[in-house]
Protein 1
Amino acid sequence: MQTNFSKAQLADQETAHADRILRRCVHCGFCTATCPTYVVLGDERDSPRGRIYAIKDMLEKGAAATPEVSTHIDRCLSCFSCMTTCPSGVDYMHLVEIARGHIEKTGSRSLKDRLIRRALAEIVPYPNRFRWAMRAAPMGRRFTSMLRAMKLPEVAAMIELAPPERPRAGRFRGPGTASPTGVRTGRVLLLAGCAQQALRPEINDATIRLFARGGIDVVVSNGAGCCGALSLHIGREEEAVRMARANVEAWSKEIAKGGVDAIIINTSGCGTTVKDYGHLLRYETEYAKRAKDIAAMTKDVSEFLDGYDIGAPKRWSSLKVAYHAACSLQHGQRVTSQPKSLLKKAGFTVVDIPESHLCCGSAGVYNILQPEIAGELRDRKTGHIKALRPDVVAAGNIGCIRQLQMGLDVPVVHTIELLDWAHGGPVPPGLENLEQYSTSVPQPKHSVEDYIGA
């Protein structure tokens, strides 16, 4: 793609970066076939190619973002399916971040939009605030129809996405180290997350138990918090940078002690962002090198476990598991086969969901900011799942889990919860009625050492 930036514009680092990305696009349109919003809306302006043209025009003019451009950029899910498809390697992820930053700085949003975005940025990344918000949500359920009539569908979506029952407190909370009682074989840092530990703390509990059985110390670092993904995706880059710096600082202290094998992320949306810390903090002199090193150490929990011997399962199940590939895992991190491989090794029957490349509509807080499109994508995805008639759905991202559960009667759980259950952990919440289909594997009464003489 030919661009027409002036020399003065190209002196700006972000504009120069956008120019390099734009020049890789060859207008082929392969991205349109795999873009969820284009598939649903059929509007070229809501395809990656259309958005690239709009971003190019907006940045070249150097003008304030127009409401029309903001609308179509806001509708982007940041699922990055287009990047998996693109034959030219267009870095759409960073291009759309540049565009969102420009819109946030120059665009004009309604008071309602500004308040909702501010509320999300001030609540979701902070677990205690988020817990209080979920406690208040049930009181608003009877008013969701009225809220939609008042043209406040975003507020109605917030209320409906909150779990009907208050999540229980997690077994492992706050900073500290969970150590196995037996021989230690490794040491990892775990990002406890923000929304996840409030919505479904069982995921972190399952992760720590599974690692402990493998002899791995799990450290939740003091000072580590939200990864910054939410702020970044709504154009609040300075906030995201501040959060990333805090995590780099906290993890660097633990790494300096030595013996850290990896930084483990069990929320794939967070994993995509942390793996990109080298880019996010590239202009931060004090943090750039450490951020790049940390990004290189970061692994999704399934990615790490796939290369680690966690032993044979202690339970064998006949359950049929529909595996949902979160966009942030399959497109953002290119982790595709590992979760399914682990589930199969644990004894589950795993089936793929048709149109697995298309987003379920969660996309961080997209299902709040764009509830209508998110609802269409959810219904499309859950329709495919229902046709498979699975016993349970597994996913690697808390947003997907909550989004899919809204449209399904079968339980939706994290992949790690099923693995923990198969390896001796408790039955995951929501699967109590399926426990009868899990059989304990007979364990040998003697170990190999019992048969070896002195």
Protein 2
Amino acid sequence: MIKSKHAPMILSGVILIFGFIIMGYMYQQWKQEDMPISNPVIHQITTSNQELDLKSIIHEAEKNVIQIEGQNEDSTMTGSGFLYNKQGDIITNAHVIKDADVIYVRTADAQIYPAAVVGVGEDTDIAVIRVPQLAGPFMYVEKEKHPEVGDEVIALGSPHGFQNTVTLGIISGQERNFSVDGFNYNNAYQISAQIAEGNSGGPLIDRKTGNVVGINSVGTKDGTIGFSIPIKDVIEQIEAWSNAAQTEELDFASTSDLISTKDPEKLTADAEYLITYFLDSIELRDYVNAYALLASEMLSKTSYKDFRDKYIDFTKVTSDEPESTITEENLVHSKLSVTIEKRSEDEEKPTKETYIYTFITKYENDQLKISSILTEKQKKKDE
């Protein structure tokens, strides 16, 4: 009787002991395995040597760097800004937009949207504007750490048209204090990257992390030195403006008025920029971004999978300057030579071919889109 009474307890104890042994073994195996992590945010993109690829940093950042155009009765002001939160809020300099009656923004893919003022500094040269259509992805802002003297930085300006600029440099000084046009700059970074007209308000990016550390604001006349406002020092005020603003209470302009008065030269420049951006996206394997540049008539005929499969073997894309003409319907026909290197399973080296591409771009729902892409293999001179 005693033996049968304790047998279940003994059996349960043996099972528990074996269970703990098995769990301990599985835990040790789990600790030794690498856990893959997938995150598309730019500050986590790495190459095999854990260094951020410069071209990838610039391409990803330009999606969130914005050209700003302020207009009043007397003049047009241009500058830059960058998306910093998921509401579509853009950080820029106060001097870029303070005298504007209406504000428009142009994105890296040549899209135009109206913007409204969220907040403008009186003594500090910072401002925030909002574009609800751009709500979504944004740039990562470094809120805690200051870069040090000697750290490599990237200064980005307007990512569009002739004002598209990317300059590299270092933090060459800190705690610079001065005043310009009624604005006080305190503890500004001195940088060797040039800040020219049109760059004001753009982000200063840490080369190692891809994070925004400053707002590019002022440059010397000779172009050898630039100054950037530390984002860490002003982010509290910026976030206070954003949190207090209600979109339905903001004043937005109309994009249709701007587009209807667009001159042919500017329309051509916009179309040619869009084509270059499309080809850059293909080379960097950013097929989602490239696909989004197509007009509805192309989207209806081509699925994303088919579009991606068409370009997936492209390893390098280089092109000449396009030659463009405009029709009476404001369609822009742009013709250019494009050299493509492709992967090949049968050959050790990639294949290399040159094509003549003809892009047709047009406005669709107030936005510039690619409505047609025609390709023809370029014949060699001896053929």
Protein 3
Amino acid sequence: MAPAYATILLLALFAVENRGFNSGSALLIALAAAMAAARELPTTSLSFALASLAGQTLGLFPGVLESGALTYTAVPLLVFFAVLGLPSHRRWFGLVAAVVLAALTTAAWFLDSTWINYLFGSQVREGSAARIALQIFLVFAAFLVLALAAWTAAYAVRRASASARAQAEVESRLERTATALEVEQDRNRISRELHDVLAHSLAVIIAQAEGLRYIHRSEPEAVDEAASVIADAARKALTETRDVLTGLQTDSQDPLEQRLAALAVQFSTSGMPVTLRPAAGLALSTSPETSHAVYRLIQESLTNAFKHGDREAGVEIFRTWTPDGLELGISSSTDTSRQPGQPLPPPGQGMRGMERRAADAGGWFTATADGGTFLVRAFLPLSAGKLELEEVGA
């Protein structure tokens, strides 16, 4: 940018003042060259400009009348671009250079008697020392204001640029953090889904496979049924695992009641009776996400009861519709082999996953052991504005 402005200024003054490449244009060319390099070599450019103006006061360059008063318009532009390029710890040099440049410009003007007489006429020749001093001060003040305005403008631009860069960096970090959080949430979702799918399916497969060891001789007609259950569980686990990994909806298109009934039958045929009580209250038509959460909560509760509880005692599932949502209750018996007073194992990934599912839906989840009963309770709130009521039969 600085070289472009320097070139435009040089060509404009050449055209306006009908200049050529001669001694009268030497100072203009010197200041334009310093201005062109100000952004990349700020200290060198300011020093070169100071030397050029000092040279004019010493008579090395033609005076103001021959060099042209418009030549000095390059000074504030030079200060502006130099301050943009100066390191932060050297901005003071730009400020000092602005003051000195204004002083040298004033000196060059008043040392050129022809130019001063042209400007002030008899006011200088016949004026008192105080009047001349005031005129010098006013000229110096005018050049100083221009130089300091350029320094201030450059400083403001640098501050604005630094602020914009800082804001862009913050936004970039926030975007990276949001992306990382999204990836982590997706990873956790996949982990929960895979845990629920595989834990349930493997528990059923293991139970059926163990049963085959005892019934293949005494009840050969039951072998086909057990093998069919194993195949169906493995096939469903494979399908759901593929859907989870490819990001597809893992729920089937069957109604929730039908899927829960099939789940109850699957566990019942595996040796743990499951009683699915009719839902009480007015049922609300749920969204696919809510149905998925309900299904997974009940599935994981049944899987935990199957793995850690008293299978023969069975499990009861209660559901109650309220105006605010659905409340679940899954009651099972604890393992009879556990000694009285022996603490329950710490919550595993399945329990934490259920708690997370309920929290993601805006609800709550609890799991308590009282005597020989293990009770899981959860509540999933629903948006009344998006639901339709229908009477549930007994």
